[in-house]
């Protein structure tokens, strides 16, 4: 038992350090976070303590109120910290990929399946809702990327529904903080085995494209691609 205590202490210290770092990060974007947490805790504790005096059990309700005050403060802190994090990531390249990486179980995500020279990018997620293409960048340019990616996938996964979402704050776009919720609300139309099969087919498509021997730069005029594979020696 003595060997486990140092490890447990180290884990607790790590969690406390992480909470402190999260609080500092949140406070940079949310100056009132300390006052809000204090108000939530005090009000929650005060309500339960007052009820305790009214029914003649101030100690019992006071202890319960203290625990619930801590829980309420933790919930509010988590939500405001998440909001602050999304606020800092908004508009940053790769922000959507970071959200997709934490979408939860049942989803397989592949970042940057398509990109152009302007750093507009399309990410892909596969789950029971089908295939979701998430684009970030200029809304006019990403339409071309999304259309090209749909055509490419249509050759091997034409029977799987494809949704496309554009992350941004403009009309018809999805705010970064609402991306995860929007994806989780999509209707589930595939079974687990169908999701696995779709991922396998998309993975094969990726391998095929990465192994295709395309020349670098423009193809010389009149040059023809070889029909057969490499000759055996």
Summarize the structure.
This protein has seven helices and four strands, in the order H-H-H-H-E-E-E-H-E-H-H. The protein has 233 residues and is α+β, with helices and mostly antiparallel strands. It folds into two domains: 10-89, no CATH class; 95-211, no CATH class.
Output the keywords.
233 residues, alpha+beta, 12% strand
Characterise this structure.
The protein has about 230 residues and is an alpha+beta fold. The chain has helices at about 5-30, 35-55, 60-90, 95-100, 140-155, 180-185, 190-210, and strands at about 110-115, 120-125, 130-135, 160-165. It has a four-stranded mixed β-sheet with strand order 1-2-3-4, sandwiched between helices. The longest helix is centred in the first third of the chain and has 32 residues, at about 60-90. It is elongated. The N and C termini lie far apart (about 65 Å).
The secondary structure category is alpha+beta
The proportion of strand residues reads: 5-15%
Radius of gyration: 26 Å
Number of helices: 7
Helix content: 55-70%
The total domain count is 2
User: Which strand order do you get reading across the main beta sheet?
Assistant: 1-2-3-4
Shape: elongated
E-strand count: 4
- N-to-C SSE series? HHHHEEEHEHH
Q: What about the largest sheet? A: 4 strands, mixed
The end-to-end span amounts to 65 Å
Show unreliable segments: 207-233
Which oligomeric form is depicted?
Answer: single chain
Give the overall average pLDDT.
78
């Amino acid at each position: 038992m003595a060997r486990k205590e140092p490890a447990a202490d180290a884990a607790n210290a790590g969690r406390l350090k992480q909470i402190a770092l999260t609080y500092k990060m949140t406070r940079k974007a949310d100056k009132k976070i300390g006052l809000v947490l204090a108000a939530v805790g005090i009000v929650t504790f005060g309500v339960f303590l007052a009820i305790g005096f009214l029914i003649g059990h101030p100690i019992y309700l006071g202890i319960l109120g203290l625990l619930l005050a801590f829980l309420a403060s933790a919930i509010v802190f988590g939500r405001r910290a998440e909001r602050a994090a999304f606020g800092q990531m908004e508009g940053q390249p790769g922000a959507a990929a970071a959200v997709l990486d934490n979408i939860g179980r049942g989803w397989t995500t592949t970042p940057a399946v398509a990109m152009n020279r302007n750093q507009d990018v399309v990410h892909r997620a596969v789950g029971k809702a089908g295939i979701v293409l998430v684009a970030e960048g200029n809304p006019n340019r990403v339409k071309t990327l999304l259309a090209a990616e749909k055509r490419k996938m249509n050759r091997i996964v034409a029977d799987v529904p494809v949704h496309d979402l554009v992350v941004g704050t403009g009309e018809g776009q999805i705010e970064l903080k609402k991306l995860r919720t929007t994806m989780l609300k999509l209707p589930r139309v595939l079974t687990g085995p169908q999701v696995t099969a779709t991922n396998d087919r998309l993975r094969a498509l990726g391998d095929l494209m990465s192994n295709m021997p395309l020349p670098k730069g423009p193809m010389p005029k009149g040059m023809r691609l070889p029909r057969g594979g490499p000759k055996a020696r």
